[in-house]
Amino acid sequence: MTTSPARLWFLDWVRILAFFVLIVYHVGMYYVTWDWHVKSPFASHAIEPLMLLSSPWRLGLLFMVSGVASSLMLAKTSAARFLGQRSARLLLPLVFGMLVIVPPQAYLEVVEKLAYQGSYADFMQLYLGRYRGFCRGTDCLIMPTWNHLWFVAYLWVYTLLLGGLVAGLGSRVDRLAARVAASLVGWKIIALPFVALAIVRLLLQPRFPTTHALVDDWFNHANYVLLFLLGAMLARAPQFWPRAESLRWSALGIAAACWATLTICFALPDSLFIPQALEQMWNLQRILYSLFLWSAIVGVFGFAYRHLNRDSANRRYLVQAVFPVYIVHQTLIVVIAHAIQPARLAPVIEALVLIVLTMCLSFAVVDVARRSRVLRPLFGIAPVQASAKIQRASQEVTTH
């Protein structure tokens, strides 16, 4: 392995902050016109430009950080042991989530969208029985479902891929990482990954719309695998992070310009364009979206490396808390949003209430789970006897 920094605290903070942004984003999904599990009576287009501030890059950033973490872990242990540890850490929460955490989201979705009258117990019998009758036209709810936990399933698959590559390539992984790092200098840090991401989006997005169903989601796989493997390579090239720092303001400016332009493009009615011009407009949006995605990631890395490359007691707590918070947060949002509808709070106040209650209850769940040997693995928290090892490992990067 190439010489790596003793500490990459900033990547822990990037992951922590990205998950907090995810909570705010999912609260926002309650108020926009995009399809989601439940909807506010006040849902409109109003805050959709604000949602666009993070939607292009948030998940790509998380997959890339996960690639960094996985690569650093593989550098210190065998591929077989790594895959065993990661499988336990990811699959147990995924199965538990699909059976216990996610079903309330699906239940309230059919209550609100289809006026389902059955009890939760009745619904669970249908849920576990793989009932396929909850449909609006051809759009049917597939059960059991993983909803927001699709990220965990995809991450596990990409982890298997990386483990197999490292096992097969051996020391050639480091040579490949060195070549990748050598190519990402100066303007190429922005240009080369952007071009690769744009090609993927232009070629695959029109043919493979997002499903989060794993088996047919080929555009998302190509997009996220590219970022995951790029993170795995850059984990072994510590010289990349100071380069990202030097470009942080330029990357931020590019991302801001892309956001502003995309906001205009998405607001233009399709009726303004003839069919041929409309297709070109969509391609332009795909290119801008890819540039926004990558420049924002570079900017996040650059500013985090500059300002957050330090340890603290808060980091040590939050780095283990964010994954269980992620597991429960969306169910809490859906349940609380449905429950407080009769109060008819003003949208801004209601959104703040949702954020505050989701944060507080999520961390309450974490504090309960971390005190239980049974619940810890179900929420992705390392066993007590492994805590000291994980704390040492986190001196380099987060373990998820």
UniProtKB/TrEMBL annotation:
PANTHER family: BLR4337 PROTEIN (PTHR36927), GLUCANS BIOSYNTHESIS PROTEIN C (PTHR36927:SF3)
Domain Acyltransferase, chain residue ranges per copy: 10-365
Entry keyword Transmembrane helix: yes
Keywords: Acyltransferase, Membrane, Transferase, Transmembrane, Transmembrane helix
Organism annotation: Massilia mucilaginosa
Transmembrane segments annotated in the record for this chain: 12-32, 57-75, 87-107, 149-169, 181-203, 218-237, 249-274, 286-305, 317-340, 346-366
Keyword Coiled coil: no
MF (Gene Ontology): acyltransferase activity
Protein's name in the database: Acyltransferase family protein
